[in-house]
């Protein structure tokens, strides 16, 4: 667990209360000033670490403006890198976010709880100095050590005992000297007592790994680590050190800039109350969020299997001492063998149209789609439960293509929303700008068949309109 406080947090969740609106942001004018910042400015806050399929800030900014008021609670149950949360804070809302992915929780927490530039400067000077001294003292002894680098356990070098991650064939993905350097950084980052420093140090480590060739300390060719490495590079300790410190500077400067924005709005001392991130919470079971507690949901579930988050993120998570991500917790990436294709489709005639015969007759493929739809249904049911009556959910999803067959996932989402009791307010199509979005390359991503996505606006009907026995 990255967050020692999270154990006690779950006890507090049930008592989470809406903060009275006038205490959230005293000066409404300053909120408007902050909200009028241009989108490019806000987007720059997200660049210090890539996150596949992160949606552009204009989506949550528009949705929040249209469907919520200052001080209300905006929730993203698939918050990823925290785009909705940052947009919500900048528009004077309270924000809650959750995701199944550990890296997502770290990024979202960092962007909603940044420290001051002064604090980061003091931390960074001391931290980089200590790291430098460690690297210096290791460097003379490293050659005889690297031949002993294995995939688990620990390495001992010049009096240092460095722990190694357990779940990767390490030297297949990382040059041996980089393994030693990363182990040292990992150990130092984890020891930072103050959470803002620890998380920033860990995110810099992650950003040094999940980065496009050649700006990565791994052998991987792309940020998703789906393509095998073609070329073996030699990366020495000094390269690992300079890449990491460069990343750390970027992380700290982006977080300091966010902090200045929150200070300008007068909310920087209230961030613990205004922004909550629930790590490891499954959107199919939002157990930490009470019924009817959220005013607006702005979110984007996975686009079927378009991004392999566990694969992409395990390369950095292993260095952050996190467990290996489990596939069956990620919507769209697994098949529930207990779910029977025909049984699920029975009585859902619309889905017979959505899943063409070619897909239905292939039990493996058909069942994987049905698993995805069922998981979407469970997530929508939870969204319905946590929304106040009359509350809106804005969901972004793209149709994906499998084996040459395009499946209208957005239509499925519309049907499932109705099944869960929502009214469908609006469905619109928007063009995906590939240059602005990171997605796996090849046949799946934004340079493949995914050129558009759909924005689906649904509403939990106001109480007066719910008929007896419904909802
Ligand atoms: C399309 S991305 C969301 C990106 C986000 N809007 C952003 O701007 O960064 C989908 C997210 O769903 C998360 N996810 C997948 N399965 C989940 C589950 N069962 N519960 C919660 N989150 C899940 C993934 O980890 C990923 O972060």
Helix-strand blueprint:
Layout: H1 6-13, H2 21-24, H3 28-35, H4 39-44, H5 58-67, E1 73-76, H6 83-90, E2 94-99, H7 102-112, H8 117-139, H9 142-146, E3 154-157, E4 160-163, H10 170-173, H11 176-190, H12 195-209, H13 237-265, H14 271-274, E5 275-279, E6 294-299, H15 309-317, H16 341-345, H17 349-354, H18 357-360, H19 363-386, E7 387-397, E8 400-402, E9 405-407, H20 409-419, E10 423-431, E11 452-459
Parallel strand pairs: 1-2, 1-6, 2-5, 6-7
Antiparallel strand pairs: 3-4, 7-11, 8-9, 10-11
The structure holds S-adenosylmethionine.
S-adenosylmethionine (SAM) binds at residues 51, 53-55, 78, 80-81, 83, 99-101, 104, 282-284, 300-302, 309, 329-331.
Please tell me about this protein's structure.
- With about 475 residues, the chain is of the alpha/beta class.
- The chain has two domains: about 25-115 and about 280-305 and about 335-465, Vaccinia Virus protein VP39 (Rossmann fold); about 115-255, no CATH class.
- It has 20 helices and eleven strands.
- The chain has helices spanning about 5-15, 20-25, 30-35, 40-45, 60-65, 85-90, 100-110, 115-140, 140-145, 170-175, 175-190, 195-210, 235-265, 270-275, 310-315, 340-345, 350-355, 355-360, 365-385, 410-420, and strands at about 75, 95-100, 155, 160-165, 275-280, 295-300, 385-395, 400, 405, 425-430, 450-460.
- The strands form three sheets. Strands 5-2-1-6-7-11-10 form a seven-stranded mixed β-sheet, with helices on both faces. A two-stranded antiparallel sheet has the order 3-4.
- α7 packs across α12 (about 195-210), α8 (about 115-140) crosses α11 and α11 (about 175-190) packs antiparallel against α12.
- The longest helix is centred in the middle third of the chain and has 29 residues, at about 235-265.
- The radius of gyration is 23 Å and the shape is globular.
- It starts with 5 loop residues before the first helix and ends in a 12-residue tail after the last strand.
- The model is unreliable at about 1-35 (pLDDT under 50).
- Bound molecules: S-adenosylmethionine.
């Amino acid at each position: 667990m990255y967050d020692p406080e999270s154990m006690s947090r779950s006890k507090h969740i049930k008592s989470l209360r809406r903060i009275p609106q006038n205490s959230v942001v005293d000066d409404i004018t300053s909120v408007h000033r902050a909200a009028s910042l241009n989108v490019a400015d806000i987007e720059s806050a997200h660049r210090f670490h890539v996150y596949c399929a992160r949606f552009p800030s204009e989506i949550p900014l528009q949705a929040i403006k249209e469907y919520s008021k200052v001080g209300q609670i905006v929730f993203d149950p698939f918050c990823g890198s925290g785009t909705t949360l940052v947009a919500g804070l900048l528009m004077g809302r309270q924000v809650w976010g959750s995701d199944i992915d550990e890296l997502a929780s770290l990024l979202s927490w960092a962007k909603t709880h940044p420290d001051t530039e002064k604090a980061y400067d003091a931390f960074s000077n001391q931290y980089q100095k200590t790291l430098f001294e460690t690297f210096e003292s290791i460097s003379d002894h490293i050659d005889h050590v690297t031949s002993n680098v294995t995939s688990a356990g620990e390495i001992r070098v010049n009096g240092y005992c460095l722990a190694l991650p357990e779940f990767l064939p390490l030297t297949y993905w990382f040059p041996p000297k980089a393994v030693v350097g990363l182990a040292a950084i990992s150990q130092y980052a984890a020891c930072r007592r103050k959470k803002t420093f620890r998380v920033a140090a860990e995110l810099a480590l992650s950003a040094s790994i999940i980065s496009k060739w050649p700006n990565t300390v791994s052998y991987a060719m792309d940020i998703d680590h789906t393509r095998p490495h073609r070329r073996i590079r030699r990366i020495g300790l000094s390269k690992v050190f300079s890449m990491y410190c460069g990343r750390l500077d970027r992380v700290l400067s982006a977080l300091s800039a966010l902090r200045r924005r929150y200070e300008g709005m007068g909310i920087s001392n209230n961030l613990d109350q205004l922004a909550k991130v629930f790590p490891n919470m499954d959107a199919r079971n939002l157990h930490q969020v009470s019924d009817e507690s959220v005013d607006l949901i702005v979110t984007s579930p996975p686009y079927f299997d378009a991004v392999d988050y566990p694969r992409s993120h395990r390369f950095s998570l292993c260095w952050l001492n996190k467990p290996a991500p489990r596939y069956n917790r990620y919507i769209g990436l697994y098949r529930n063998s207990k779910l029977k294709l025909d049984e699920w489709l029975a009585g859902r005639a619309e889905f017979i149209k959505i899943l063409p015969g070619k897909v239905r007759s292939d039990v493996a493929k058909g069942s994987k789609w049905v698993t995805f739809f069922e998981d979407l249904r469970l997530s929508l049911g939870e969204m319905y439960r946590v929304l106040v009556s009359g509350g809106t959910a804005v969901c972004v999803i793209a149709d994906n293509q499998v084996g040459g067959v395009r499946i209208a996932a957005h239509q499925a989402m519309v049907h499932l929303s109705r099944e869960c009791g929502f009214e469908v307010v609006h469905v619109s199509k928007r063009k995906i700008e590939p240059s602005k979005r990171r997605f796996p390359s090849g046949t799946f991503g934004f340079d493949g068949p995914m050129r558009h996505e759909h924005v689906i606006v649904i509403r939990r009907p106001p109480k007066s309109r719910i008929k007896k026995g419904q909802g």
